[in-house]
Amino acid sequence: ITNVPSTTVDHVGYGGGGFASRITTDNSDNMCIGVNITDNGVIDTIAVTGTAEVTQMALSKWNAASRCLWVKYLPGSLIIPAAWGNNIYVAGLYQQSNAHIGQIQLSDSANKQQGYIARLDSQGTCIWAKQVVGGNTVLNSIDVKNNHIYVAATSDSCFIYDTLHVCALPNQGLGILMQLDTSGSIIWTKKISAANRFSATGAIAVIKS
């Protein structure tokens, strides 16, 4: 795919040993793809190793000639990348111990689904990573514009990230919208409550023009 503006498409295709969670393009028409892989395989010409327990994801970057430049492993069962400039921002979900992004260690998930938000450079090296903890957490979507990061998330109880600590009312779900700066610090947040425990904020789409 070439000559594509900075646009994202969620949940692109399923089947085989895994699925692609999102395709996103940067300002140079490079593509970044997050892929869940449960079997050993090949991404373009790069061999990848899958895990049957679905404890890691493969993030790949492709040039405008549709050739894979590199593949990086990230922890969890889902990652959603969003590219801006020369950086890649990732929202991920994991439920495991001993999870790490590069040299950054994440805390034990204590058998609950937890999240993280990370910033990678153009070579896939992690610049920073911050955790989202609380109840069973879902990071539904992430997007970036003008050096602002937008995240939509849900939790079945409490949601803790950076300076934010909010909890749902009894028997209610909790949805969160956040705007972050490029260091991952919160600029603003909006809380959405639902009448039952199944609250969802859905996907975020930011107009790039």
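Next protein, fold it too.
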Amino acid sequence: AVPGGIIRRGRIAPGFAEGLSDPFLLVHGTGIRSFDAPELLDEMTSRHAGVLVVAHPRPGAGRPLLSDPDGRLTSFGSDQASNLRDSGVWLVGREAAGAGAAALSSPHAFLAAAMESGAALYSECLARYCRVVESPADFLALCGDVLGGRIPRAAGLETDPPVVDPSATIGEGTLIGGLAWIDGGARIGRDCRIEDSVVLWGARVGEGS
């Protein structure tokens, strides 16, 4: 939905913004997020923002943020003064990207450098869904959200498709449907019927189940 993109692991690579659109979408961290890209673009344009940090209100998940009544981001990283949480989804203008390019150690070092440069950073609760996964308990909570239908349906889909990791082994004749989530390394035997279930990493499901 937003033209231009890049995938990196670990540190931000030098020249990471070269060839990307203006603005471009930057997603970092581990988790599942749902958002409306045109809504983000409209919000960023209306505020003349250099960076739009998509936030969510859930406590304890994601880096804490503090914004003023107008939505301008004033600080981050302190639980003592926080009204929002970073979802890990940012819309970044090229000018702000250039201002923070010297701080390439991590996404948040880049954010701090952009803020110190005077770039206009705004944060709004525009994540339709956000579950930051940092522990096994977070993953189980995510599974509960999947099975409970609390993850927004993707635009244009009439039904919620099952999620099957490519590394899972599915036996011949097995039917998978509903809100099924099959994690990597799972082995499902022949002639099974899996519906509205979560099969975790490395799990085994016997034939005919």
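About the second fold: DSSP finds four helices and 16 strands in the chain.
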